[in-house]
Fold this protein.
Amino acid sequence: MKQHKRLLVVGDRVLVKIEDGEQRSKVGLYLPPTAVDNQAVQGGEIVSTGPGLALPDLADQGDEPWRIGGSSGREARYVPMQAQVGDYALFFRKAAVEITFENEQYLVVPQAAILALVREPREDIPEY
């Protein structure tokens, strides 16, 4: 039985399923015609996220914090991602990189380029 390849997103990036440029997004956000026409802003559903920004392990690095690998044996720590799988992301299109994986088109977007997230309410997370 052949296993499917997995596409892993690294760092503080998200993988977005492309939504066709329309004035009104699937989640009800209205995008002004200038944003759609100029492709300045685009939206889509997040299908995968990276682990976040890696934090250096300063505990055992002495005066060389850039050194890779330490004798501490600790696992990498990350600043967690705000974006989550299933969120609808509105982002700057110029920051995205378009890729095709197994005949599907996606955008890889750095979290810093995301303007807003739309998330469905969940029972296990309190609303603000």
Remarks:
- DSSP finds one helix and eight strands in the chain.
- The first strand starts at residue 13 and ends at 18.
